[in-house]
Every structure is written in structure tokens, then in C-alpha cells.
């Protein structure tokens, strides 16, 4: 079906509409063989609070952006190559329902659909697209994923020293390797994580010591992206995660 749609006028028109909705700030999306599979609004757990984001699933990429005017205008376009994507279901807990993790080497985050049926459809379509891409390219699935950040609301004290209490003055920071919420003194060091940035990024002392000595396995065991569903129950109103402007977040 995808092959039949690839060069159809209807598909070309649909992709052109998506491009126009992002305006001049968005990247061109029309390339030979690209097909728009589906679209919809999902709730993305951002650093400050959950926010509605418009998602577009193509046969080779996942695109999302901020909603400025529903169905007419979006900004802050993000493009994720599907070859690098792995998804994991999240168990329902309280107000957090119908969710799954989107994990990539660069960035990982949680999204939630309005219904269980919508979640199932999104996950099935994403898995099918990823499987088809890997089958055609002969590549193997990526086993390296950026950490899903622990929500701010889950940490009243530093998750490393267990002493420093967070206040408006003593700010929360996030380790880019394990995703833990840590205080400033426990995350003064930086380390180059090429999959996430071309510059050294903030990491906690624990991960720095492991990365410096090459003991990657122990550090990876602290990555919350594989145990996100085991986190304490929270409401959609107070959960936060990585925001859409990584350079401005800690």
C-alpha cells in the first residue's frame, strides 16, 4: 500500500499541506518515496508540564511540532528518523493513560494518546514503518537510547547525594546520561555524548566516573527509559520532562 501511495497525487498534496502548516521555518518534507501514513494530536510530557503536540507519521520519519492554530499552523518542527526509533508501552497509572515511550539515541520522551485504540494504532503503525525500513536497509535496530528524564515532581531532593533539597534558588538539573534529577554540585562535570550533542553535556558525578573508566553497563542500568512505567504515580498537571528546547533546559 505504501508503494502505491508513494507517487500518488493525493499523497503529494497531503505532504505539501503539512509543509505549508509549518511555514518557512520548517524543513521541506517532500522527497521521492515518502508517504504520509497518519497524523494526530498526542500529549507529550515536556519539562514544565504536559503539552499537546501535533504528530505526523511518515514511512521513514516522525515529525512533531507545537500547535499554533489547529490544523492550520505549527512551529518548532522536530524530525525523527524512524530507523533510530524504539517504542515501549507504558502502564496506565492514574491520569497517565494510553502512553508509550519514543526512544532514540538523541532524545527519548513519553507521549499519551486519548484512547487505548488510538495508542494501539500509533504503536502498530510506528513498529511497521521501523520494521520495513530496517528490512530494506539491512540495518539492525539501535540499542543506544537517550535517557528519559525523571519528572521534576518525583524529586524533592537530589537523587544522587540524597541531601540537597530543591528550592527556587537550588535548582533541579538533569543528567543527560541517566536522566536523574540532581543538584548543581552533583552535576558540575560535562562529558561528550556524541549521539546527543557535538559539545560536552551536563552529567552527574556517578555517570561521569563510570563513563571515564569505561564502565558503561552499570551506568546504563540507571537509565529510566527502560523502567519509566515503574515511577511513582503522578498527575498530568505536575509531571515534567525534557522540553523542546534542549539548550535552555537543565
TrEMBL record:
Q: According to the UniProt entry, which residue ranges have a biased composition of type Polar residues?
A: 221-233
**Keyword Transport set for record:** yes
Task: State the superkingdom.
Answer: Eukaryota
Q: What is its main location?
A: membrane
Matching Pfam families, A to Z?
FYVE (PF01363), PH (PF00169)
Q: SUPFAM superfamilies this protein is in?
A: FYVE/PHD zinc finger (SSF57903), PH domain-like (SSF50729)
Q: Which residues form the PH domain?
A: 35-131
Q: Where in the cell is it found?
A: Early endosome membrane; Endoplasmic reticulum
List keywords of the entry alphabetically.
Endoplasmic reticulum, Endosome, Membrane, Metal-binding, Protein transport, Transport, Zinc, Zinc-finger
Listed GO molecular functions? phosphatidylinositol binding; zinc ion binding
How this chain sits in the membrane, per its record, is: Peripheral membrane protein
GO cellular component terms, alphabetically, are: early endosome membrane; endoplasmic reticulum
Sequence ranges of Acidic residues compositional bias: 239-250
Family annotation (InterPro entries): PH-like_dom_sf (IPR011993), PH_domain (IPR001849), PH_domain-containing_F (IPR051765), PH_Phafin (IPR037871), PLEKHF2_FYVE (IPR047966), Znf_FYVE (IPR000306), Znf_FYVE-rel (IPR017455), Znf_FYVE_PHD (IPR011011)
Annotated region described as Disordered, given as residue ranges = 221-250
SMART domains reported in the protein's UniProt record: FYVE (SM00064), PH (SM00233)
Q: What is the role of this chain?
A: May play a role in early endosome fusion upstream of RAB5, hence regulating receptor trafficking and fluid-phase transport. Enhances cellular sensitivity to TNF-induced apoptosis.
The protein's name = Pleckstrin homology domain-containing family F member 2
**Which organism is the protein's source?**
Nyctiprogne leucopyga
- What taxonomic classification does the UniProt entry list for its organism? Eukaryota, Metazoa, Chordata, Craniata, Vertebrata
Amino acid at each position: 500500500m505504501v508503494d502505491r501511495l508513494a507517487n500518488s497525487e493525493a499523497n503529494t498534496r497531503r505532504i505539501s499541506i503539512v509543509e505549508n502548516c509549518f511555514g518557512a521555518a520548517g524543513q521541506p518534507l517532500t522527497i521521492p518515496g515518502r508517504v504520509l501514513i497518519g497524523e494526530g494530536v498526542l500529549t507529550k510530557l515536556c519539562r514544565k508540564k504536559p503539552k499537546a503536540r501535533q504528530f505526523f507519521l511518515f514511512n521513514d520519519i516522525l515529525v512533531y511540532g507545537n500547535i499554533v492554530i489547529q490544523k492550520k499552523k505549527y512551529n518548532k518542527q522536530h524530525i525523527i528518523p524512524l530507523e533510530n526509533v524504539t517504542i515501549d508501552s507504558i502502564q496506565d497509572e492514574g491520569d497517565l493513560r494510553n502512553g508509550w515511550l519514543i526512544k532514540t539515541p538523541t532524545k527519548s520522551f513519553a507521549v499519551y494518546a486519548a484512547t487505548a485504540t488510538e495508542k494501539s494504532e500509533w504503536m502498530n503503525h510506528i513498529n511497521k514503518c521501523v520494521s520495513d525500513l530496517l528490512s530494506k536497509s539491512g540495518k539492525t535496530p539501535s540499542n543506544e537510547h537517550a535517557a528519559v528524564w525523571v519528572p521534576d515532581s518525583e524529586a524533592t531532593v537530589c537523587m544522587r547525594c540524597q541531601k540537597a533539597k530543591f528550592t527556587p534558588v537550588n535548582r533541579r538539573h538533569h543528567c543527560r546520561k541517566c536522566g536523574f534529577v540532581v543538584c548543581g554540585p552533583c552535576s558540575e562535570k560535562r562529558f561528550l555524548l556524541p549521539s546527543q550533542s557535538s559539545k560536552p553535556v551536563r552529567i552527574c558525578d556517578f555517570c561521569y566516573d563510570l563513563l571515564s573508566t569505561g564502565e558503561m553497563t552499570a551506568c546504563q542500568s540507571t537509565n529510566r527509559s527502560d523502567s519509566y512505567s515503574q515511577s511513582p504515580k503522578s498527575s498530568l498537571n505536575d509531571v515534567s520532562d525534557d522540553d523542546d528546547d534542549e539548550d535552555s533546559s537543565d
